[in-house]
Automatic annotation (TrEMBL):
It comes from the Eukaryota. This is Sucrose transport protein SUC3. Keywords: Membrane, Sugar transport, Symport, Transmembrane, Transmembrane helix, Transport. Its main location: membrane. It is a multi-pass membrane protein. The keyword Repressor does not apply. PANTHER family: SUCROSE TRANSPORT PROTEIN SUT1, SUGAR TRANSPORTER. Coiled coil: none annotated. Belongs to the glycoside-pentoside-hexuronide (GPH) cation symporter transporter (TC 2.A.2.4) family. It comes from Aegilops tauschii subsp. strangulata (Goatgrass). Pathway: Glycan biosynthesis; sucrose metabolism. It is found in: Cell membrane. GO terms for molecular function: sucrose:proton symporter activity. The chain crosses the membrane at residues 58-78, 121-138, 199-221, 241-266, 278-298, 310-331.
């Protein structure tokens, strides 16, 4: 994407990328929020595959078709040009050509060649994703258990309530994607007006408040139940509406997360004169490591407190706050003029 953005710049490209990703999310979460795939594709339901199984197969079948279509479009229209044919390789002070490391371990070998400011970007990126992964992992489960008071292993009524909550959560993620799509077009103007550091740090504080709000909503849903989430029989309509509104609101900081860190990384690499592939690869490592940490540690953390998903969201709020504070002091300051120079052009 960065290679093909040309004069439009990486920031404009990231905004467009984010909007298309939002469209894909809308379609994907729509497939998860419906329970009618077995009706639209009756051949999927067999003696060995029940209604729920047919719904799952239907959603995945459509996903496979969309993925194949998009892959063909990419292969046909994304014409790549070798890097050497576009511009000369960056050189060292003594005139020698600076060759980027290659091979499977190129990213790890290239840590020493990161441009100034990149280590701070990696640190804040890791903290930011530590605050997001609990929501990404437990959002629909939270709706099913703590808002709809269901239990997938409970009575038939509790299991049905849980499934209804999961579908409502998928609908909330659909709303989240709609907001993300519209917000993605506002990221570049905001960065040009306020600077990418201010926009990024502000999104962390928004996530901090949102994750804290999830904990408050969970308490609200159980305030008359003596703290035992699974003992509820009905869920308040007001709580459901507030929960869906919160899902939608999180689309704003999510749009920032999907664009600003990558745009900042591209700008730092551009100022250095190359190495954008290396910087992007290292940035992905800063995303994957938090994912592993949350996937492995969130379950035991929740079990330690015995309160469903609430401890994980409380931890997410703390990480978001720390990430915002660290970002204020450590994120490289990219002036609005530099942002325009790198991301402007024909756009």
């Amino acid at each position: 994407m960065a290679d093909l953005s040309a004069q439009h710049g990486p920031s404009a490209a990231n905004s467009i990328f984010c909007s298309w990703m939002a469209l894909g999310n809308i379609l994907g979460y729509s497939s998860g929020s419906t329970n009618n795939w077995h009706k639209w594709f009756p051949f999927l339901r067999t003696r060995a595959c029940c209604e729920a199984c047919a719904n799952l197969k239907g959603a995945f079948l459509v996903a496979v078709l969309f993925l194949a279509f998009c892959l063909v479009i990419t292969v046909i229209f994304a014409k790549e040009i070798p890097y050497k044919a576009i511009a000369p390789l960056p050189t060292k002070a003594n005139g020698q050509v600076e060759v980027e490391p290659t091979g499977p371990l190129a990213v790890f070998k290239g840590f020493k060649n990161l441009p100034p400011g990149m280590p701070s970007v990696l640190l804040v990126t890791g903290l930011t994703w530590l605050s997001w992964f609990p929501f990404i992992l437990y959002d629909t489960d939270w709706m099913g258990r703590e808002i709809y008071h269901g239990d997938p292993k409970g009575t038939p009524d509790e299991a049905n309530a849980f499934q209804a909550g999961v579908r409502a959560g998928a609908f909330g993620l659909l709303l989240n994607s709609v907001v993300l799509g519209f917000s993605s077009f506002l990221i570049e103007p905001l960065c040009k007006r306020l600077g990418p550091r201010v926009v990024w740090v502000s999104s962390n504080f928004l996530v901090c408040l949102s994750m804290a709000a999830i904990c408050i909503i969970s308490w609200w849903a159980t305030q008359d139940l003596h703290g035992y989430i699974q003992h509820a029989i009905t869920a308040s309509k007001e709580i459901k509406i507030v929960s869906l509104a919160l899902f939608a609101f999180l689309g704003i900081p999510l749009a920032i997360l999907y664009s600003v860190p990558f745009a900042v990384t591209a700008q730092l690499a551009a100022k250095r004169g190359g190495g954008q592939g290396l910087c992007t690869g290292v940035l992905n490592i800063a995303i994957v490591i938090p994912q592993v940490i949350i996937a492995v540690g969130a379950g035991p953390w929740d079990e330690l407190f015995g309160k469903g998903n609430i401890p994980a969201f409380g931890m997410a709020s703390a990480f978001a706050l720390i990430g915002g504070i660290v970002g204020i002091f450590l994120l490289p300051k990219i002036s609005r003029r530099q942002f325009r120079a790198v991301s402007g052009g024909g756009h």
